[in-house]
Amino acid sequence: MIRSTGRTVRKAGYTDGNAVFGDGPVPMARQPSRCGRRPGRVGGGAPAAADIPVGRERVVVVRFRLLGSVEAELDGVPVDLGHAKQRGVLAVLLVEANRVVPADLLLDRLWDGRPPGRKSLHSYLSRLRAVLSATQEVRLTRRSGGYQLTVDEQAVDLHRFRHLITRARAEDDERAVRSLEQALELWRGEPLSDLDIPWANGLRASLERERLAAELDHADTALRLGRHTGLLPGLFDRAHRHPLDERAAAQLMLALCRSGRQADALAHYQHLRTRLVDQLGADPGPQLQRLHVRILAADPDLTAPGTASTPSRRLPAPPRQLPALPRLFTGRADESAELTKALDSGAGTTVVISALAGAGGIGKTWLALHWAHQHLDRFPDGQLFADLRGFSPAGRPTAAEDALRGFLGALGVAPDRVPPDLDAQTALYRSLVADRRMLVVLDNAATADQVVPLLPGSPSCAVLVTSRNRLPALPARHGARPLSLGVLSSAESRALLVATLGMERVVADERAVAELIGLCGGFPLALGLTAARIGHHLSPAEAVAELRESGLDALDADDPAASLPAVLSWSLRRLTEGQRTVFALLGIAPGPDTGLPAAACLTDLPARETRAVLRALADASLIEPRPDGRYGMHDLVRAYATTLADTLPEPVRRAALDRVVDFYLHTAHAAHRLLTPHSEPFRPEPAGPGAHPHPLPDLRSAMAWLDAEHPHLLAAQHQAHRHRRHHAGWHFAWSLTGFHRRRGHFHADLAVWRAALDAAAHLPDPTVPVHTHRRLGLAHSKLGRHEEATGHLHQALALAEDLQDTRNRAHIHHALAMAWERRGDDRKALDHARHSLDLYRVLDNPVREAVALNGVGWYTAQVGEYDAAREHCRAALAVLRRHHEPDGEAHTLDSLGYIEHHTGHHAQAVHHYQQALTLHRALGNTHNAANTLDRLAHSHTALGHHDEAREVWREALSLYREQDRDIDAERVRRQLADPTGNKPDNAR
Length: 988
Fold this sequence. Notes:
Blueprint: E1 9-12, E2 15-16, E3 19-20, E4 26-27, E5 41-42, E6 46-47, E7 59-65, E8 71-74, E9 77-78, H1 84-95, E10 101-102, H2 103-111, H3 118-132, E11 139-143, E12 146-150, H4 157-169, H5 173-185, H6 198-224, H7 228-241, H8 246-258, H9 262-280, H10 286-296, H11 333-346, E13 352-357, H12 364-374, E14 383-387, H13 400-410, H14 422-433, E15 439-445, H15 448-451, E16 462-467, H16 473-478, E17 483-484, H17 490-501, H18 503-508, H19 510-520, H20 524-536, H21 540-550, H22 564-570, H23 577-588, E18 593-595, H24 596-603, H25 607-619, E19 624-626, E20 630-632, H26 635-645, H27 650-675, H28 699-722, H29 726-743, H30 746-760, H31 767-782, H32 786-802, H33 806-822, H34 826-843, H35 846-862, H36 866-882, H37 886-902, H38 906-923, H39 926-942, H40 946-962, H41 966-977
Parallel strand pairs: 1-7, 13-16, 13-17, 14-15, 15-16
Antiparallel strand pairs: 1-4, 2-3, 5-6, 7-8, 8-9, 10-12, 11-12, 18-20, 19-20
Helix pairs in contact: 1-3, 4-5, 5-6, 6-8, 7-8, 8-9, 8-10, 9-10, 13-14, 17-19, 17-20, 19-21, 23-25, 23-26, 24-25, 24-27, 27-28, 27-29, 28-29, 28-30, 29-30, 30-31, 31-32, 31-33, 32-33, 33-34, 34-35, 35-36, 35-37, 36-37, 37-38, 37-39, 38-39, 39-40, 40-41
């Protein structure tokens, strides 16, 4: 009995004889009555705290029972807990004692997804609070998003049961058997027997499994102490209730054997074996089979241990095998939350496996250890850790048998007692961790086969697997929650450097630190290596210079585990030679990533085999799957792949690059023909063997492909230029011009034509330099570089006149008209437009003639001669429609809209602009669509349609911003602020 002199002592817990289980007496101050009411009795029976006279020696014991019907007692007096739903609320809170239970979880557990509303829940909680208010040992409080019942867990039979089980595992057999008996005595029947709700039904099943495990542990312990005779009735009953449980069968067989009833033991084995074969189609497991053989052989070791000479076995302390907490760990909040979510959602239903997949050096092990250390309280029965060495300098991965021997030793199995074969080891391991709340961390796994034998069979355990491979078999066969780990964000990278170098050094050179973060690309190992060098002898600026100069070599180190190239090399060990070659070629493939058709040409493999290799590389975390079936690499991984490509034979590397360049070139040419069917039919040289252009059935698919592959096409032209493939380099520029014009990619257009100018000098066709200078002039003009524009255009004109090339002279005068318009000289623009029209008429090309006629009409309108302009544009429109030339038709409709707007016919202008806009959109010409939208808004404004004008200007503003047309965007922004002005922009 706990005594107190001069005041009341109150204690929550269970009594055993004269002892009170718990952490000791809790002296409580005398409490005033609440709200002016005199304290009464709890539930009509138990005395309230104020009823206990101060100065008397007294123990107030609070008890809650869940292992039977839901009950509560205060000082041995039952407490009225209300009807079933109210008892259900208390049961949920007691099961989650001292943890915050979200209100939504309470509602879901009690009403199975059909809650009546929070009002009813609040009512039950208020009543429970009133019932429990008389004792300070139990507090029901509201927390953010939920409720918490604070109680000494020893006062709840369920938690006391679990405490005794855990305690028993750390005690010698004599004490363990008493603890197990005390635990089992707490059961009064079926748990939560008065609650008929799905949550209670599911919990009952789980608790019954815990009870069975405790009964089996008790039997094992008692058998070790030689108490087989007294166990027999219970063992017979348990074997009858669980006829397929091999552990229960083994205990009964051993007890029968020790009682001199070998024949009955053998008969029970045969009976069980028949049942297993009939119902499951399987024989008994290896352990039971070995016991059967030992009974047949009358093994003397099966006799009961002597009570005097055989000491009882002390169970080992719970294993704590986790390596130390990573000191400099930063970030990964989202990934940590995902791991916790996986644990919470999987508890009690299946083994939780979160396979952390990511490239070497990405921080998988650090995340796993950080998360594990943060959640040690969830695994009171211990933590097991094994480095499976799937990717390490040691070479061969750790065999599952070796890892199991280490786990079994940590669980108290003597080396000479470890079974020889893997299946038996796995069975023993799973038996030892059954129903224990343990965490198993399997780091650096190579394959799923290496992992599966190490997975517990108990839902009370959690498993965390890290691997560079994605291990798809784990989610498919074992319910794993895969989590791919990417690079650190800029903020996380900076936090890592601050943790390593200190805030002062980071703040002192923010610019160099920002550049350093960009060069490392969020790769934790790269950041750590660089930070270590800064801490040792470099400044941030010097580290940046070293990275820029040496690239991946700057991240090498004598210690293989601290060398990024070495760490990455370990990922290649399990790849085939063909897969390693593809990885190397992907490192030098043009563009930021690679789609399947390009990869098939690069590798010279059929599409199906290429897809299989790409998946294998993605599973090895060497490449990253991206949307639309594309695959990319981190810049540092690409740098490593490039070093491998340098080791390939030159013919192999060159042939692969030629194939992929031809793939991009010939597909771009096909797209160009769809975009500009009336342009000159220049054709690239035939594609080489193994280069298969991507099929493009229509204009929409061509624009979509060009949008997706644009950076790759620019890179492919650069590749062609490096390898002096001049014909290909020039044709890339030609094939991309129409796309660049429609999308407004004028900087890219200038870049490709600059490269084409160098290629043109090596090509035999004398018209190639003419086209090149014309296109360069147009590209300069679009970017407002007027002197360069007219310089190239006049050079092109001189070359065309030397060649007496009428067609190109017409093209160049058309380009000069646009260039002079952009320089603000509409009269010169009109002169060149008329020259162009005259030359096109000589050529008998009605489409080109109509385009030039619209040009004359546009520039005529710019000088204010609207009637003549309208006549030219209408004549052009008729020809263009007759020849189905939608691009020229859209420009001509835009010209007519401009003419009608400036002659006061605003409704007709709106009509023309809307028709032009429809065609621009169908053609994917977002550049001219923005211009037409801008002018359309002015016509709406002139009609007083200000809402329509604002809507149209907003769309124009969005397009201008996408195209980086800052001046146009700012002008439209001002017009949106004051839409009453009517000053249309004339830019085409």
